[in-house]
TrEMBL record:
<dbReference type="InterPro" id="IPR020845">
    <property type="entry name" value="AMP-binding_CS"/>
</dbReference>
<dbReference type="Pfam" id="PF00501">
    <property type="entry name" value="AMP-binding"/>
</dbReference>
<dbReference type="InterPro" id="IPR025110">
    <property type="entry name" value="AMP-bd_C"/>
</dbReference>
<protein>
    <submittedName>
        <fullName>AMP-binding protein</fullName>
    </submittedName>
</protein>
<dbReference type="Pfam" id="PF13193">
    <property type="entry name" value="AMP-binding_C"/>
</dbReference>
<comment type="similarity">
    <text>Belongs to the ATP-dependent AMP-binding enzyme family.</text>
</comment>
<feature type="domain" description="AMP-dependent synthetase/ligase">
    <location>
        <begin position="4"/>
        <end position="356"/>
    </location>
</feature>
<dbReference type="InterPro" id="IPR045851">
    <property type="entry name" value="AMP-bd_C_sf"/>
</dbReference>
<dbReference type="InterPro" id="IPR000873">
    <property type="entry name" value="AMP-dep_synth/lig_dom"/>
</dbReference>
<feature type="domain" description="AMP-binding enzyme C-terminal">
    <location>
        <begin position="407"/>
        <end position="480"/>
    </location>
</feature>
<dbReference type="InterPro" id="IPR042099">
    <property type="entry name" value="ANL_N_sf"/>
</dbReference>
Length: 492
């Protein structure tokens, strides 16, 4: 029996999910999951690691579909609700999925293509409500889930994790962040990314806690839920905190103080999936009384590094290795470095198995001795890791220097006219790359004013040589700035 099935039976009549105007117990959740597993199996005894795509509303439908696929022996492939048909086709063709579970609202988008492609389309609302089908024994080393990378530099790759890998990720977080059955968390993150799937839903349900769903982002609705007093854990991405801060600053002093009192009662608030600007962390702490816990992870490794639950949460740093995760920094020759920046490499049971159907890419992702090469560069000081950026997008090689785009962004954000910014490296014959900045202004400023300010804060070789002013920065579903899209704006 898989861990979530056993746990759900143990927690029984305790509330697992709150979605819409309904509550769902663990018993109801696992019963529905077993029904879905039966519908998937039909006359088979085991899906035997066949990929099954699903595109369903967040909440009861989502979790029961995921668990149902797992109970039938399949590999769960979550599809983003906002994906256009071409992106969905890519996932179905890449995984070879021949079964697709969807909410009824998505049938107009999917039905014609699925019929043409020979994909069995199951409508979640129409799946059987009874029938007890014998379920297969699923070994923990089997494939469990395929999540797709963002595909910012190439076509998205399917990241295959096993049941053992997923449970290892969950156990590591439960130990580090002290999840308990008293936890009640709000899920408003996309559920085709690891942040929402593992950190919010899976880890909370692992210990018998409650997950409440918010179908659409709304600062007003989020704070309404906060004021109800039941929530005690909140996880979001930096862009969400940025928007919540803007909303709080629009309120009266009395309203802000009322919400601050509510938020101070939370046991934990976390930021992840993109670098947390120090300015956002500091503003949030003033407005909420909560010191955000920043951590580091990615699709291939789950969460790997985290600021401590108890202890100093250091601004601008992602903390220390999580339980059962090994971390090292290496140079370009793959030699371990100390006292200087290096690429983060990760090893342990939380690391993914392989890129689906991509043998060469899977081999190239690991060192000969089994370390996963993240492509992210960090430095280590006093036991805390500090991310300097991604080798491909955030480390700018200019005139013999390796510059961190994230460090330059932090300084630029301190200018009183700058609301947000992103720094990239542009190709240059003389320098290799030059520093360029995309800026969102909250009040008028000029290139000359920004240059004067930056030259007073850092050496000239770090100061941006080009600027472009935007109304907003291009971002993906998890709030990460898509820097390759930015580079085009400077070249065009």
């Amino acid at each position: 029996m898989l861990y979530f099935q056993q746990n759900a039976r143990t927690f029984g009549d305790s509330v697992a999910l709150l979605s819409g105007n309904s509550t769902y117990t663990y018993s109801k959740l696992i019963d529905r999951s077993e029904q879905i597993a039966g519908a998937l199996l039909l006359d088979q005894s085991d899906l035997d690691e066949s990929p099954v795509a699903y595109m369903v509303e967040p909440g009861f439908a989502y979790v029961s579909s995921q668990w149902g696929i797992w109970l039938a022996g399949g590999i769960a492939v979550p599809v983003a609700l906002a994906h256009p048909l071409d992106s969905i086709k890519y996932i179905l063709q890449d995984t070879g999925a021949k079964t697709f579970i969807c909410s009824a609202s998505f049938t107009p988008l999917l039905s014609d293509y699925c019929q043409e492609a020979g994909v069995r389309l199951l409508i979640w609302e129409e799946m059987p409500q009874s029938d007890q089908t014998p379920l297969p024994e699923v070994h923990v080393d089997r494939g469990a889930m395929i999540l797709y990378t963002s595909g910012t530099t190439s076509l998205p790759k399917g990241v295959l994790s096993t049941h053992h890998g997923i449970e290892s990720q969950i156990k590591s977080l439960v130990e580090a962040w002290k999840y308990t059955a008293n936890d009640h968390t709000l899920c408003l993150l996309p559920l085709h990314h690891i942040h929402g799937i593992i950190n919010v839903i899976s880890a909370t349900l692992y210990v018998g806690g409650k997950v409440e769903f918010l179908p659409q982002f709304s600062p007003e609705e989020i704070f309404t839920r906060f004021k109800q007093g039941a929530l005690n854990v909140f996880m979001a991405v930096p862009t969400i905190y940025f928007k919540l801060i803007a909303y709080l600053e629009s309120l009266t002093d009395r309203e802000r103080n009322e919400l601050k009192t509510c938020m101070q009662a939370f046991r934990l608030m976390i930021s992840g999936s993109a670098a947390l600007p120090v300015s956002v962390m500091e503003k949030w702490e003033v407005l909420s009384g909560q010191r955000l816990l920043e951590r580091y992870g990615m699709t291939e490794i789950g969460m790997a590094i985290s600021n401590p639950y108890q202890g100093e949460r250091r601004a601008g740093h992602v903390g220390m290795p999580l339980p059962n995760v090994q971390v090292r920094l290496v140079d370009e020759e793959n030699g371990v470095v100390e006292g200087q920046p290096g690429e983060i490499q990760i090893k342990g049971p939380t690391v993914f198995k392989e890129y689906w159907g991509k043998v060469k890419a899977s081999q190239e992702a690991f060192t000969e001795d089994g370390w996963f090469k993240t492509g992210d560069v960090a430095e280590l000081a006093d036991g805390y890791y500090r991310i300097l950026g991604r080798n491909s997008t955030d480390i700018i090689k200019s005139g013999g220097y390796k510059l961190s785009a994230l460090e330059i962004e932090e300084v630029l954000r301190t200018h009183p006219s700058v609301e947000d910014c992103s720094v990239v490296g542009l190709p240059d014959e003389e320098w290799g790359e030059i520093v360029a900045a995309a800026v969102v202004l909250k009040s008028h400023s000029s290139t000359d004013e920004l240059n004067t300010f930056m030259r007073s804060k850092m050496p000239a070789y770090r100061v941006p040589r080009k600027y472009v002013f935007l109304s907003e920065l291009p971002r993906n579903a998890m709030g990460k700035v898509t820097k390759n899209d930015l580079k085009v704006l400077f070249i065009s």
